[in-house]
Amino acid sequence: MFFRQYYLSCLSHASYLIGDTTTGRAVVVDPQRDIDQYLADADTNGLTIDLVLETHFHADFLSGHLEMAAATGATIGYGAAAAGRAEFPIQTFADGDRIELGAVVLVVRETPGHTPESISIAICPEGDTARPWGVLTGDTLFIGDVGRPDLLASVGVTADDLARQLFHSLRERLLTLPDETKVFPAHGAGSACGKHLSTETVSTIGDERRTNYALAPMTEDQFVEVVTQGQTVAPLYFSFAANRNRERREILHDDEPVAMLTLDEVLAEQARGAVVLDTRDDVAFAAGHLRGAVNVGLGGRFAEYAGEVMTAGTPIVLVTAPGDEREAKVRLARIGFDGVLGALDGSIDSLLDRPELAEPSSRLPVRALEERIRSVPGLVLVDVRNAGEVEAGSITDARHISLPALLGSLSDLDPTAPTVVFCAGGYRSSIASSLLRSHGFADVSDLIGGYSAWQTAREPG
Q: pTM above 0.85?
């Protein structure tokens, strides 16, 4: 058997290639949109990918099923409950269906709860379906957590109904597997598809049975309570990506060059409504940037945070460090943000001859913020961390508006009021402060080092 996990840390996304080296037949499960790595590994190992299997309609990234099908001719497969819900041809698999690659057999287990069509896939290298070697659990079972059941409320599927389905899926379809069965989920720590995901990328059924809070002995009602409470605000782009994954759409050609635009062309696109997305780190951005630009550093969870501060379909112009243009474009494409018009030619150096177009960011150390709190009437503090982070403490009188909710909450804030935003360490607050300035907020600063620095400054001695 050939088996490989591909872990994309910037989206906390795991995908898989499984093949039978005797027959050469292979399956890709939950692929990312740029697919070269799967094709290269299949070619190197003499495998032919004839099935792309999705554990569900994903919301946190745009899956590569259409790209894989176009490149290989593979069939696209989903669980039985996906029937009639995709705009492209699919094959559906019901509970107990076998996918025989040769000696390697995959067995589908329907595990609704995160979504109605969710499935898990037992991997049986020698065809012994009674004692699978591993199971791909999608977003049903994570390491240390389970999939959140609340993402489909906007389309009329209640969190309560899905949580009850999830309770039975876990106990009747997954916990019935042998303890030594390896668990391979679709996501790890940092994903917004759960709340307590581990940094580990593989576990076992036995370890999860012993340590996963959601698998502890409890009633169905208790389970519903524990898995529906404390979830973070879902990123703004999730509903878009979930719908896009059901649609026919353009295929990503990730080797296409990014158009380079002059400063005047960038300004013209900005005037027509494009977001200028500056992907440099927060320090470089603070030193000087094009007025009205939004900062989301490429070094962090770039695509996810970009998807929280602009609506899907927004035209985008990139400002990057030289050579980073293609990476930024591909990472945006992974969540379905295909509207990149181009990148500023020469990066920020283009502003050297046009200083009237540039501005620095206002960033405050802790002592300066303390002085502002004492001396500036009407100062507004905005904590953009997630609810779980805020529960551990915040700055007195700060308003909590998590970053995913900020764009939709602009009307609740006064653009003329002096405002300071903060997060845990400074990355998200740079995004938030730049977003506010891009929407006309006149006096915005963020806290250097975030709430961590604020707490440290208050520690004795």
A: yes
